Write the structure tokens for this entry.
Amino acid sequence: MAFSLVDDSGASVEPSTFDLHESEFRRIEAILSRVRGEVRAELALLVSRSGQAVAAAGAAEGVDDTALASLATAALAASDGLARLVGEDGFPALAHQGVRRSVFISDLMRRYALVLVFDAAVSAGLVRYKCKRAALLVEDVLRGRRRAGEGPAAPGGLKFSDDELEALLGE
Amino acid sequence: MTFINYVAREINCKIVYYGPGLCGKTTNLQYVYQITSAENKGKLISLATETERTLFFDFLPIDFGDIRGFKTRFHLYTVPGQVFYDSSRKLILKGADGVVFVADSQEERFDANLESLDNLKENLREQGADILALPYVLQLNKRDLPSAMAAEELTRVLRVRDEPVFESVAVRGDGVLPTLKAIARQVLVELRKNGA
């Protein structure tokens, strides 16, 4: 089993196809789980910069992971624009301080972001420190995988027929 | 950017509705939201101004069902149509697996359609994508309005290749689902072709 990520943005440094094998997926989950425990976060989420949730640890009651991934990415994108406006390359992290809950978003290789939903009583400095460390570990997994130059996972599970496609999209 | 999660057995695709201001992009999503059962949809998020113009984007995740044991989930986004929100459009286009261009059929919006289409091509090009290769559908919206131009004329000018063209009245839901299914089909066929 593998987690596969296919990206068609040919102009960027991103590869056209990117596959994350299950072992790496599990390592990322373990990192998310650890940082979640360290800062007593309800949820730790790895999202792609196109707005999709890649991996998660925990769950925040009443919080939709899919919506959170999309909005966190949007916030980071807006922050990038703001950074350029004031002559910065980017702001590496965003902190949203709430009354009961806070959200911390940390950029990762400009292709992903780490998102933590945590109790507002927890020190933002602690979260920033632990999140930075976790981001480096996740980055290491992703870069290590790229250095290894592995090919696609080729699970072969998606060779669906036209009939299957019609059954899915038919009336 | 298509995500295939082999652990959770999910396919996640991103579709962007593009077009000039007030052409009906948000209305498309609102209709899809209305008719989709609760278990097959997520929250409809609209980042809009106080006058309900799209400020950043609308977002709606929907499930189409299973194929080969994989849940197919489409993330639908709209871009803000107003000319001065170009930075937002570029951000939202990032990683799109397919694009629906929603044209406003009214004659007085003809130039706005052309400008938006040029803007789409340019923004795709900046991201290294090509409108001639990307899954793409053209929707001619507001067919019910008295100043609607002939569909043949609009198609002749706005069609960029052999993409499917659908006439629609999004406020009534006419043509909304055929448009969505057509872009979803292209995205999935592309995914299969790429050997996922």
Remarks:
- The radius of gyration of chain A is 18 Å.
- The domain at 2-169 of chain A is CATH 3.30.450.30 (Beta-Lactamase).
- The beta strands of chain A are 2-6, 17-21, 41-48, 53-58, 93-96, 101-108, 112-119.
- The interface with chain B takes residues 1-12, 17, 22, 25, 48-52, 54, 64, 66-67, 70-71, 74, 77-78, 81, 152-155, 157-160, 164-165, 167-169 of chain A (CB under 8 Å).
